[in-house]
Amino acid sequence: LCPPGVLPLCCRPPAWDRATRPSPSPLQPPGLPLAPCRSFTNNKIHVELDESSGVAMMKFKSPPVNSLSLEFLTEFSISLEKLENNRACRGVIITSAVPKIFSSGLDITEMCGKSVEHYTEFWRAVQEMWLRLYSSNMVTVAAVNGSSPAGGCLVALSCDYRIMAENPKFSIGLNEAQLGIVAPFWFKDTFVNVVGHRIAERSLQLGSLHPAPEALKLGLVDELVPEDKLMEKAAAVMAQWLALPDHARQLTKTMMRKAVLDRLLAHREEDIKNFITFVSKESIQKSLRMYMEMLKKRKS
Ligand code: CO8
């Protein structure tokens, strides 16, 4: 039994497995064999698997800004699990179908004026998404084709490789301090593992959002490429990583990431409690409301 708020992912059938596919499409004439199930779409994410290369393309499609709402995070975790359980899939490229935005990070409305039960469920879903992505056995490549603040940056940082569109208007970083909130320790750990302690410390304290060229200099992204070459490059990088035997790469990845993953796993419930205590404070609620108002004002 899953505790309340835990996604019962382990209980779901792998929807990509042709043998266990529940029923043929209504358009499928009776008696004909099932066509290979290659794509999967839900409300906020579209996934397409090329079974010949073993590479899936995951596209965020939740306009206006791909904010990581509870529904989004749930779909994200389920999509990752489906791919992970599909033997034909060895790697996933994560990108956005929304122009100019990779992801605007956690949906701030999920953290404003909600119940303790809601905060618990939401935060568990944030943890679940990160645990699945950061520990994935698949090769994960982020093709960052737009701005990527806070939780959006965490998604990119959790991948094995980051390629960003060469557009100085796109920025990336953990800007929590600008909202008057603090990046949780596992956001920080993930950041430190990519850019090192000094850069992470300065960037986190200042809540910096780094324009793409600066992000490259800091090592926050691995490569910049012209926007129209992004997917091509992501596919080339993926092919390079997939040229190695999976087991050696996977064991190495586990060795590099285990300590950080174990830290959250050991303190998961405490981390939820801390989040609830923090986000329930009137001063934090005020900061978040003011930030949302600032976003709206900036627009008008
Ligand atoms: N959550 C909810 N709504 C959002 C978010 C968000 N993260 N970001 C933008 N929106 C909304 C805007 O309010 C606006 O709504 P409306 O249309 O109703 O006015 C709509 O999306 C479109 O936004 P913009 O007009 O600003 O769109 P632009 O294309 O001009 O800019 C940006 C896009 C650059 C993404 C911009 O919206 C932005 O900077 N957003 C804020 C990003 C941000 O700071 N995210 C941080 C979230 S916090 C987080 O991820 C981690 C927190 C972990 C710690 C928690 C401990 C308490």
Automatic annotation (TrEMBL):
PROSITE patterns: ENOYL_COA_HYDRATASE (PS00166). Pathway: Lipid metabolism; fatty acid beta-oxidation. GO terms for molecular function: delta(3)-delta(2)-enoyl-CoA isomerase activity. InterPro entries: ClpP/crotonase-like_dom_sf, Enoyl-CoA_hyd/isom_CS, Enoyl-CoA_hydra/iso. The keyword Acetylation applies. SUPFAM superfamilies: ClpP/crotonase. Coiled coil: none annotated. Keywords: Acetylation, Fatty acid metabolism, Isomerase, Lipid metabolism, Mitochondrion, Transit peptide. Belongs to the enoyl-CoA hydratase/isomerase family. Key enzyme of fatty acid beta-oxidation. Able to isomerize both 3-cis (3Z) and 3-trans (3E) double bonds into the 2-trans (2E) form in a range of enoyl-CoA species, with a preference for (3Z)-enoyl-CoAs over (3E)-enoyl-CoAs. The catalytic efficiency of this enzyme is not affected by the fatty acyl chain length. This is Enoyl-CoA delta isomerase 1, mitochondrial. It comes from Alaudala cheleensis (Asian short-toed lark).
